[in-house]
Amino acid sequence: MLIALELFIIGIIEVILGTWDIKLIEKERVFLSSLVSFVEVVLWYYVIRIIVEHLHGFSTVFTYALGC
């Protein structure tokens, strides 16, 4: 249950970071945009690691998708 909540929150954070990244690109803030993109990649790596470790059911993927 705790993993599901964690993935749900990470999904929400990822959407927020993606939106912020697009806004930074529009404002031509390239350095800050690349930092946000780096954080997004680290989050993706973390999510994939969690999903692979807990691959016993579809629920981990589903809860992450709900957050997105």
TrEMBL record:
Keywords linked to the UniProt accession: Membrane, Transmembrane, Transmembrane helix
Keyword Transmembrane helix part of the UniProt annotation: yes
Annotated transmembrane regions: 7-25, 31-48
Membrane keyword on record: yes
Protein name from the UniProt record: DUF5698 domain-containing protein
